[in-house]
Amino acid sequence: MAVQSKPAPIGPWGKATAGAAGAVLANALVYPLDLIKTKLQVQVKPSDDAKTDAISNEPHYKGTWDAVSKIASAEGIAGLYAGMSGSLIGVASTNFAYFYWYSIVRTLYLKSAKAAGPPSTLVELSLGAVAGALAQLFTIPVAVITTRQQTQSKEDRKGIIDTAREVIEGEDGVSGLWRGLKASLVLVINPSITYGAYERLKEVIFPGKKNLSPWEAFALGAMSKALATIVTQPLIVAKVGLQSKPPPSRQGKPFKSFVEVMQFIIENEGPLSLFKGMGPQILKGLLVQGILMMTKERVELMFVLFVRYLQVLRSRRLRRAGDLATAAKLVAPVTVK
């Protein structure tokens, strides 16, 4: 008798691996945009009397293309990929943790929820926020190190281990690796808005469709990320300011909170500077989220097909074993007492 087995959906580990794989691929493709948006967000607008500017030899970038030109001219194409190894490690760990916890908390909610049908938008946002907070607690040290690497000059740039040591030897000690944690916890609304909007748009635009085409997933991911970025840009700028070295005008004194960073930016550059670097931030977000979700959908489908293939193999082996056992009984000699 053939053994029947139902195709089981992939679990949290499969979803987390798919999300991490998509995130690494997406961020590797658009990494120069990530580097440039970080440099634009951390730089301070030149003062009129140039007194503060004389303290620093860091170049000032007028925009995305100006930054690309100056970095490529000073450091070559390799300069546009400075700190990429640490960044991809951070991206992989953060997204793996996020998708893992998101899958778990969403599954637990669906099992405990009494109401039929998909979760509401508010519930999706809440689930995303919980998953994002859990992910940040474990992965923020990598983000701190990456931000330091991206904002250092070519002469001061160090490897991952040396940069981590520099952070630890600073004013905050080991806790410096968790600088910006509060801002990061607040910023969990970004992925919660992103993935909450993604799930909601998926149900509205493609109702009942389980497997999206690559371009459908790309479009939904891009739209959801653009919305999240516009809403949270001031917090993103403040977080970068917290995790990087303080500007020269502060004479080495680090910021204590993201509110202090925002106050500093408003006082020295005006309120609109809270949105500096938004161009490459949105462009990077659109491309990364689109590619991520497109890749994630494909990798998840590959996992499902792989699991089904393993189930078919197991079913065949069990059937073959059953047939051999039956044949053995038929040919076994009859013992006469």
From TrEMBL:
It is found in: Mitochondrion inner membrane. It is a multi-pass membrane protein. Solcar repeats lie at residues 10-108, 119-204, 212-302. One of its GO terms (molecular function) is ADP transmembrane transporter activity. The keyword Ligase does not apply. Its main location: mitochondrion. The chain crosses the membrane at residues 80-102, 122-145. Keywords: Membrane, Mitochondrion, Mitochondrion inner membrane, Repeat, Transmembrane, Transmembrane helix, Transport. InterPro entries: MCP, MCP_dom_sf, MCP_transmembrane, Mito/Peroxisomal_Carrier. It holds the Pfam family Mito_carr. The keyword Transmembrane helix applies. Belongs to the mitochondrial carrier (TC 2.A.29) family. This is Mitochondrial carrier.
